[in-house]
Write a structure and sequence with these properties.
Number of strands: 5
Order of helices and strands: HEEEEHHEH
Shape: elongated
Helix content: 40-55%
Structural class: alpha+beta
Strand order of the largest sheet: 1-2-3-4-5
Number of domains: 2
Distance between the termini: 61 Å
Number of helices: 4
Strand content: 15-25%
Length: 173
């Protein structure tokens, strides 16, 4: 399926454009000094939407701290954003000695704005309310490491051939 002139597939192209539309909508919004941002897809193909999930973050304007607050998936038309309490809990678990400078009221306004944006684009929107247990967090889908699998197969074949060669050499003595 064709996407853009750079070779992106349709879903990857839509994800890239969606991130740009989000940036255009939220470029003036600050959430306790952080700027909302959907990380654009950095792939040519999402493999039929399997890898279409894009992180939704709050990032410091100076390029410093980034707070992961949710995700968007244009292939499934879903968006999930953590509640304020879940963001604080995740930060506390990752950085127990560093306080989070995120105001609840400012974050709630951000959540409302994101919900309006997503629903206006026919995206299913949910706020993750359940207390987050980071040890039970579902793993992100992993891409098959085809290049490294091939390497191991080639190394295995070379090892077998070397072993056969050594045995033949020792038998001829």
């Amino acid at each position: 399926m064709a996407g853009d002139s750079l070779g992106q597939t349709r879903v990857a192209f839509i994800g890239t454009n969606f991130a740009q539309a989000f940036a255009n909508e939220f470029f003036e919004l600050e959430v306790s000094g952080f700027v909302p941002f959907i990380q654009p897809l950095e792939v040519q193909s999402t493999e039929g939407g399997k890898f279409a999930r894009q992180p939704l973050v709050l990032r410091a304007p100076d390029g410093g701290a980034t707070i992961a607050v949710g995700w968007v998936n244009v292939a499934t038309k879903e968006c999930s954003v953590k509640s304020y309490d879940n963001v604080v809990a995740a930060h506390r678990q990752r950085f127990p000695d560093r306080p989070l400078s995120l105001d609840r009221a400012s974050y709630q306004q951000f959540l409302a704005a994101v919900q309006r944006f997503m629903t206006s684009r026919q995206m299913h929107f949910e706020v993750e309310q359940k207390a987050l247990d980071m040890s039970e967090r579902p793993a992100a889908p992993r891409r098959a490491a085809t290049g490294s699998n091939t390497l191991w197969i080639v190394l295995g074949v070379i090892g077998v051939l070397m072993t056969i060669g050594l045995v033949l050499f020792l038998l001829r003595r």
